[in-house]
Design brief:
alpha/beta; about 40% helix; Rossmann fold; about 15% strand; six-stranded parallel beta sheet; about 450 residues; single chain
């Protein structure tokens, strides 16, 4: 019994040591994409067959708006991994991508590889195919990951013929496993295009939610609307990782001081202000003459205590209108706090402080809100009475402010960017079918 336990423990230890470092490092933090691309622009290269060509067209349209991503308009052609010429093509790719300047590689290949599966589906033949296919997927992922390149692999979609659909699932099982072990991103295209019953359908909702034809007549490829939807899932993963990479810029030692000052100027300025304040405090403690107490190095001055009164009309207990006087107190604010609050307004002149509203909450606590009046058409600030401020209208009177287009509380439908006319027509289904599911 003891010998069996020792053998089991040694086997588990060998399995842990056999795992690639990339699989173990996933989930330990850090960005998937390099935080500092050349010229602050991410270069994207598409690799694959005709499915990848359609995906490229959808990604080009998806990234037309927004700087920071440049997608190569030329696809690197790779018809399949199980063809006889595949080893030579992979060898050429190793040389090409050894000097390729791209930061991101997006792969979609396998439409022709489904024919390499044995039609008899014998267990020994399937095992041999799986081993060979996994080895070639590993080789492609590793050569693309060189030079700190992020790899995204889009799996096979569902297909009309049940034989092709079964083969696509087997290929996806291998790709998903190898992507995890090699530290690549796997994007599931199979589950994204099944219908409500889990089967294949030529029609479905596009990126705007409208029912359209998404698949081509061969049951394998996509229409233009389908490629746009496929690109949407890739775009979502890509933008999420790019956003994560950009947050890594603020981590110490992620870049040299010159790079940090360029990508995060606010933190550098705040650090300089903190150092200046510490120097003033040390000078005051040591008896050395310091700048005037009522002014900071930025020219901001102390705000004195001010008290104001506001008359508000309310209904009394008997239904009669009464006037209640509310006292508004703005406490004294040191010049250092004023400079800190107004530093983003101007580099050479402190901005004017806004109106301060004070409210009492349970527990003896006082809440202060600073309301900065908006600017008018002439560029000057327009003073608002406290009763017209957003704070009083929303939190005191309970009014709902009108939403702005594109903001989180804007529920208008359809979205303005999706109001363009479409050419294709929906399938001839009953009103209670597609339209009810769409809603």
């Amino acid at each position: 019994m003891i010998r069996a336990l020792i053998t089991l423990a040694l086997s588990a230890l060998l399995m842990v040591r056999a795992l690639p470092a990339s699989a173990q490092d996933q989930g330990l933090g850090g960005s998937f994409i390099t935080p500092f691309p050349d010229n602050d622009v991410y270069q994207v290269q598409i690799v694959g067959d005709w499915l990848a060509e359609g995906l490229l067209s959808g990604l080009v349209e998806a990234f037309t708006v927004g700087p920071g991503v440049s997608i190569s308009r030329k696809r690197y052609d790779l018809a399949g991994l199980m063809r006889n010429s595949a080893p030579n093509e992979l060898a050429e790719m190793e040389q090409t991508f050894g000097t390729d300047p791209s930061h991101i590689a997006i792969v979609m290949v396998g439409a022709q590889d489904r024919y390499s599966l044995n039609r008899r589906r014998a267990a020994e033949n399937n095992d041999a195919w799986r081993t060979e296919y996994a080895a070639r997927v590993d080789r492609l992922m590793k050569l693309l990951k060189k030079n700190n390149r992020a790899v995204y692999w889009v799996g096979m979609p569902n297909m009309r013929r049940w034989q092709d659909n079964e083969r696509a699932q087997r290929m996806n099982d291998v790709i998903r496993e190898r992507a995890y072990l090699n530290g690549a991103r796997y994007i599931d295209a199979y589950a994204s295009f099944i219908d409500e019953n889990g089967g294949y359908s030529d029609w479905g909702p596009d990126v705007t939610g409208k029912i359209r034809r998404l698949r081509d007549s061969d049951g394998v490829h996509f229409t233009q609307a389908g490629y746009l939807k496929l690109a949407h899932f890739v775009e979502r993963e890509l933008k999420r990782d790019i956003a994560q990479a950009r947050t890594e810029r603020s981590i110490p030692l992620a870049g040299d001081p010159a790079e940090q000052s360029r990508v995060n100027p606010d933190k550098v300025r705040l650090r300089a202000e903190s150092a200046r304040a510490e120097a003033q405090a040390k000078a005051a403690k040591g008896g050395v003459a310091a700048p005037a107490a009522n002014a900071s190095a930025d020219g901001a001055k102390d705000q004195k205590l001010e008290t104001g009164k506001v008359d508000i009309r309310v209904l009394g207990a008997e239904g009669t209108e009464q006037i209640v006087t509310v006292e508004i107190v703005r406490p004294a604010i040191p010049a250092s706090v004023v400079a800190l609050v107004t530093r983003k307004q101007s580099n050479d002149k402190a901005a004017q402080m806004g109106d301060v509203l004070v409210d009492q909450i349970p527990g003896g606590l006082t809440v202060m809100s600073s309301i900065v009046p908006p600017r008018g058409a002439d560029g000057t600030r327009r003073r608002l009475s406290p009763t017209q401020s957003p704070y009083f209208r929303v939190l005191e009177k309970g009014e709902r402010l009108p939403s702005k287009p594109g903001r989180a509380d804007d529920f208008t439908w359809p979205r303005p960017q999706f109001t363009a006319e479409v050419r294709s027509e929906p399938p001839p289904v009953a009103e209670t079918g597609a339209s009810s599911r769409q809603r």
